[in-house]
Amino acid sequence: MRDTLNKSLEILIWISTGFLVLISCYSGAMIIRYGGLIPGSETWAIIGGFLTIIFGVTTSFVFAGLCFQVMDIRNFTKHMAMGIKRLQK
Q1: Which residue windows are transmembrane per the record (predicted)?
Q2: CA angle 5-60-35, nearest 5°?
């Protein structure tokens, strides 16, 4: 069970990243779409919508990068510990 979870972590990270990208794009589109309903706020709605999309996508990929870094650190630590055990025997 543990090996299956470790192998599926990459897929889960990409699924969550894709979901976060979709949510940020949808949120930005809704801000652009409905932000213009208030007179005089069309420009700010467009700017806010695009910033929501840009920051949301950037945050999603930063999250994925951090998760992959943690996975690499875990993998490196595991292999180093196994190597030290072999040297001590």
Answers
A1: 12-32, 44-68
A2: 140
Instruction: Spell out the domain ranges in the chain.
Output: 2-88
What's the pTM? 0.75
20: tokens are: 């976060």
CB 14 within 8 A of CB 64: yes
Q: Residue 21 has what pLDDT?
A: 96
Q: Which two tokens stand for residue 54?
A: 């840009």
Residue 52 Ramachandran class (φ > 0 left, ψ -120 to 50 alpha, else beta):
alpha
pLDDT tens, 8-59?
Answer: 888 888 999 999 999 999 999 999 999 878 787 888 999 999 999 999 999 9
Q: How does DSSP classify residue 38? A: S
